[in-house]
């Protein structure tokens, strides 16, 4: 299993803090905040690591989401600890598996990912991410192996044409 590099690790920490702060600052329930954040185009800098070069703070994205979306009357909130871990692990899943936030959210919607907290919150983040992906039967495509197979097939076809 690949480990997070320094910048990816920092981004996961930041995502954890954003999710944690949403408990106090967001005008939405925790599941709704998670869905909106993970599918919001304005959150892309958190997943392409460009946020590290910006001067905004973590509260800005929460306030931005509050302005974009109407307040939700259902205020079901997860704990700050749960939210921190959820943001952290979403980041790790995106970075380790090369998935977009929308793809990761589709694999682990809010109601599902919160269930993993009790099981995996004490694991190393890379191990937690790997086990979560194993639990759903996710297989990361090995493009190198696929590329080698394609090249081998092309070489074999070329050999056949040279023999003819």
Brief account:
This protein is an all-alpha fold.
What would you say this structure looks like, in words?
The chain is an all-alpha fold and 164 residues long. It has 9 helices and no strands. The chain has helices at 6-25, 30-39, 44-47, 58-68, 80-97, 101-107, 110-120, 125-135, 143-163. α1 (6-25) crosses α4 (58-68). The radius of gyration is 20 Å and the shape is elongated.
Regarding quaternary structure, what we see is single chain
SSE arrangement, N to C: HHHHHHHHH
The pLDDT mean sits at 88
Radius of gyration: 20 Å
Number of strands: 0
Main beta sheet, described? none
Strand content: under 5%
Share of residues in helices:
55-70%
Instruction: Note poorly predicted spans.
Output: none
Using the alpha-carbon principal axes, give the shape.
elongated
| SSE class | mainly alpha
């Amino acid at each position: 299993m690949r480990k997070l590099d320094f910048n990816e690790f920092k981004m996961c920490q930041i995502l954890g803090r954003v999710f944690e702060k949403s408990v106090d600052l967001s005008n939405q329930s925790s599941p709704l905040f998670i869905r909106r954040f993970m599918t919001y185009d304005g959150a892309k800098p958190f997943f392409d690591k460009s946020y590290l070069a910006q001067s905004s703070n973590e509260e800005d994205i929460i306030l931005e989401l509050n302005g974009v979306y109407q307040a939700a009357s259902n205020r079901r909130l997860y704990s700050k600890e749960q939210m921190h871990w959820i943001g952290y692990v979403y980041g790790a899943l995106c970075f380790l598996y090369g998935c977009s936030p929308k793809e990761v959210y589709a694999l682990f919607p809010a109601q599902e990912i919160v269930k993993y907290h009790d099981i995996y919150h004490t694991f190393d983040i890379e191990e937690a991410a790997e086990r979560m992906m194993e639990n759903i039967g996710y297989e990361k495509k090995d493009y190198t192996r696929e590329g080698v197979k394609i090249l081998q097939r092309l070489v074999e076809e070329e050999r056949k044409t040279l023999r003819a």
